[in-house]
Design brief:
single chain, 352 residues, 2 domains, 62% helix, elongated
């Protein structure tokens, strides 16, 4: 075989391999560089060694830190390097050095490939999960998902980033949180298919159906934990007890969400700000009705009708209410007292 033919074959193989890699449905990259550099600085400070400009520059050059700065600026609360230095050299940060180190070590043990594949199994065919995971030591202890706006810069690749504050948590808790957020990201990859199913709906119906997607919080909890264990299996007893207590309000919360949807359909709520004001309490200070009601419906539907039906509900959230009602009616026929959605609401959500 001459060299030209050999080169052509190798080139074709590399092209096909590259295409396959680019089209891989799951790509999760764990980047701990910011937290690593922050701990290195804390270790030097604890050992009374000088923290040099080079030490700080290595931290400031990490992708997680650069993205954090960009996100904070986009939110209208710029984070300066000087502010971060003051935070990291504070007595409060020094006191958390050991906890941060052990937590980060546990995070590094997470199997990102296994985690991503597990979440993908709870999404409709064609979904993809492309994300970066940034454990961060930072002033604000919140966690969130954010994608850097596309520019000509080479640092824009890798999909959205899951920013996770390095608060004390186990590996299981870390993996559960990442899985939850990955389910949101995977479902977002199917946004065009969701839009197709809602094409032609009147504006008020479209608004109501859009808000049904908030039940995705409960669906993501199911995907993260699985159907056969407690959704907070990885947490301590008080957290599980709080969830169980919140679940006792299922019927009341379902009625409250139903009234929100009816008010949207009746054009009593037409502005995003007004709808958000009514809907925000359903997120709760930790996990409110979007989580509990969404989870209960999702787990019952998946167990009764199977994964394919659950996938249909992810693409068209109206089906979640419809199939849940069928489960509830079957149970109620045998003596249960499960709350149900009104037939009028379901009919109006179809645009009828």
């Amino acid at each position: 075989m001459n060299g030209a033919i050999c080169s052509a074959i190798v080139g074709a193989w590399l092209f096909l391999a590259g295409t396959a890699m680019a089209q891989a449905p799951v790509s999760l990259a764990l980047d701990t560089s910011e937290a690593d550099e922050a701990l290195r600085i804390l270790d030097k400070s604890a050992a009374h060694e000088p923290v040099t400009t080079a030490d700080w520059n290595r931290l400031f050059a990490t992708r997680p830190y650069q993205w954090l700065k960009a996100r904070e600026a986009a939110m209208g609360r710029p984070l300066s390097n000087e502010d971060f230095q003051r935070f990291l050299l504070s007595p409060e940060a020094a006191a958390q050095r050991s906890d941060w180190a052990s937590t980060l070590a546990a995070m590094k043990q997470a199997d990102m490939a296994r985690l991503g594949a597990g979440v993908l199994a709870w999404l409709p065919p064609g979904a993809s999960i492309h994300a970066q995971v940034f454990p961060e030591i930072k002033p604000q202890r919140n966690s969130f998902v954010w994608k850097k706006p596309a520019t000509a810069a080479a640092d824009d690749g890798g999909g959205p980033a899951i920013f996770l504050a390095v608060n004390r948590q186990s590996r299981d808790q870390f993996e559960n949180t990442v899985a939850h957020e990955c389910h949101h990201i995977g479902l977002e990859s199917l946004a065009a298919r969701q839009e197709e199913l809602q094409a032609g709906l009147p504006p008020n119906v479209k608004r109501a159906v859009t808000w049904l997607s908030a039940f995705g919080e409960g669906e993501a909890m199911l995907a993260a934990a699985g159907a056969d264990r407690h959704p907070h299996w990885e947490d301590d007893a008080p957290v599980r007890a709080r969830w169980d207590g919140d679940m006792q309000r299922f019927a009341t919360d379902l009625d409250a969400i139903q009234q929100l949807l009816l008010d949207i359909l009746d054009d009593k709520l037409t502005q995003d700000a007004d709808i958000m004001k009514r809907a925000a309490p359903f997120w709760g200070d930790a996990q409110g009705a979007w989580y509990t009601v969404g989870y209960e419906m999702a787990v019952l539907v998946e167990k009764r009708f199977g994964r394919a039906a659950f996938n249909d509900c992810l693409l068209d959230p109206r089906k979640l209410l419809e199939l849940y009602n069928q489960v509830a009616q079957e149970a109620n026929a045998h003596g249960a007292r499960l709350a149900t959605w009104s037939p009028d609401l379901l009919k109006r959500l179809e645009g009828a």
